Amino acid sequence: MSHHTSTTLTQIQEPFLVIDDVVGTFELSACYNVTIDCRASDMIATVRTNKLFNGKIYAKDNPNSCVVDIDNKIEFSIKMGYSDIECNVKRKSQGFYSNEVIIQVTCFSNKKHELKKLTFLSFIIFSITTRL
Asked: Looking at the domain assignment, is residue 3 inside a domain?
């Protein structure tokens, strides 16, 4: 997944990778609007998209413990406490906290009448810095 599309890559002869056993290519065609709610003890990153989303949202440093699985949603969020070691929110200075969040897209392929789950290795990453 990339910010490029087939339209922006017209000058490149072969803009997409060919991978065995994968039919077609994937082109990002959704928009993501991210809002941050900074509260007294935590921050909430809420993502709203224009298409149904399947995948995960998680803290970059703790992808297994600070994660939310998303199935067919337009809006989803992740809550990260300032003192929650599972999400590894960093205190920059008095009243300033930050974290990096990853949105991971999962797509499905229906090759040979078998529904296969394909997780893409490209991600959308954004940094959050909040001041209390």
From this structure: no
Nearest-5° Cα angle at 105, 34 to 42: 40
Is residue 64 a part of any domain in this protein? yes
- The pTM of this model reads 0.67
pLDDT in tens, 72-126: 999 999 999 998 889 999 888 888 888 889 888 876 655 555 545 554 444 566 6
* Residue 99, domain member (yes or no): yes
What is the C-alpha separation between 49 and 124, in angstroms, rounded? 13
CATH of the domain at 39: 2.60.40
Closest by Cα among 84, 98, 81, 89 to 40: 81
**What's residue 127's pLDDT?**
72
Give the whole-angstrom CA distance, residue 35 versus residue 82.
17
